[in-house]
Amino acid sequence: MTTMTTGVGRGGPDAEWPASLDVPALRAAGWRPSPFREFVLKVHARCDLACDYCYVFAMADQGWRDRPAQMPREVVDAAAARIGEHVRAHGLDAVRLVLHGGEPLLADTALLARAVRAVRAAAGGAAVEVAVQTNGTRLDEERLAALAGLDVRVGVSLDGDAAAQDRHRRLAGGRGSHARVAAGLGRLTAPRFRHLFAGLLCTIDLRNDPVATYEALLAFAPPRMDFLLPHGTWDAPPPGRDPAAAGTPYAGWLLRIFDAWYPAGGVEIRLFAEILQLLLGGRASSELLGVAPIGVAVVETDGSIEHSDLLKAVSATAPATGLHVARDSFDAVLAMPMTVARQLGVDGLCDRCRACRWARVCGGGLYAHRYRSGTGYLNPSVYCPDLLALIDGIHARVAPDLAFLRRESG
Ligand code: SF4
Ligand code: SF4
Asked: What pLDDT was estimated at residue 111?
């Protein structure tokens, strides 16, 4: 039997948090933390691909080396119990469970089934939507049938056509993964399993033609797609985003897709849908944009609880909480400075972002992308010029439609 180990870690130093982070004063003023509604279980900590931009294996946090490859059953059960505890403590009527990795489909099907059933049972009457985010190399009939039996939606990472995919997303021996992933997508999109298809995630490479990339994804008729900015910080800028240079290459790349997508509609593109939603005064449903409180907690294969996975791009300690499902509740994570800072809305942003015309839409961008040594997360995103140009560009294109919708809604 595998025994659970308890992870260690730390929160960020005080210099990284906004001046408004005086939790007793905030509580006295009526502020309350917002519960987690999405739980990411790292059911497997290894991968059969070796993507060169991977934030799990190729960036600052190399903690995966010390963790069990597969989440032990007792960790699964403890995580499920903690999720149930959180659901009851906050009276939640619905939560989301994401089976993640590494590559989650390297985990035994029995382990995946145990995780899904344990969380649904622990959540009692609350609805539990379950998704797996996979690299798509292992989508065979047997696994798909198992996922269908568990009612698990399947999101697949795909960077575009064969040239785009195989430049970064390679098998350990160096061979490209496109052919294998396309075959898996063929099985997933066949009538028997098509209802499981949640969508495609594409990491942007400026060398790829944006419209050709969009069309390569559209060929699989996904219900949803999303384009991810490559990860980076002010200390380690992403490719093509020289903080000292003018230019907005990522905004230009994305706006070419927007111009192809907006008149035709059809597939949902999450990044664009969220910007439109925020421009209309709504709130975002992910941590990419906006100022909604962070609502995601992560459990690693060894049972340690972490902040958002994307902080792995910052440093080995950035995602760590020092908490563990065997002894700590998710409420303990809600009380940590990192979480509180990410639940303060505009008050949690740096001065420049607070003064920005798009503060409530952009929200400083993805938390990890704000990081700079010395000032921590109290910076605009390293993508700031691109985010500004992207939101400006979308706003200019849809302004007449937004004005119409506002009139219609009241
Ligand atoms: S498939 Fe995902 S986890 Fe695996 S190497 Fe690529 S980015 Fe990393
Ligand atoms: S566009 Fe730049 S300044 Fe404005 S909120 Fe985003 S990161 Fe901050």
From this structure: 98
267-325 pLDDT per residue, tens: 999 999 999 999 998 888 788 899 999 999 999 999 999 998 888 888 878 889 999 99
Q: Give distance in angstroms: CA of 302 to centre of ligand 1.
A: 19
Q: Ligand 2 in contact with 279 (CB < 6 A)?
A: no
- Give yes or no for residue 103 CB within 6 A of ligand 1: yes
Element (H, E) at 131: strand 127-134
Q: Is residue 234 part of a domain?
A: yes
The CATH number assigned to the domain holding 82 equals 3.20.20.70
Which domain does 182 fall in, by range?
A: 34-408
pLDDT digits (tens, 9 = 90+) for 57-69: 665 556 667 889 9
Q: Choose the residue to mutate in 350, 372, 384, 391 for probing ligand 2, maximizing ligand atoms within 8 Å of C-beta.
A: 384
The three-class DSSP label of residue 181 is helix
> Which pLDDT band, with edges at 50, 70 and 90, does 384 fall under?
very high
Burial call 326-342: b when 16+ CB within 10 Å, e when fewer: bebbbebbbebbbbbbb
- Is 103 inside a domain boundary? yes
| Total tally of structural domains belonging to the chain | 1
The reply to whether ligand 2 has any atom less than 6 angstroms from the CB of 364 is: yes
Query: Does residue 131 belong to any structural domain of this protein?
Result: yes
Residue 12 lies in a domain: no
**Which ligand places an atom closest to the C-alpha of 352?**
2
> For ligand 2, what atom is nearest to the CA of residue 380?
7
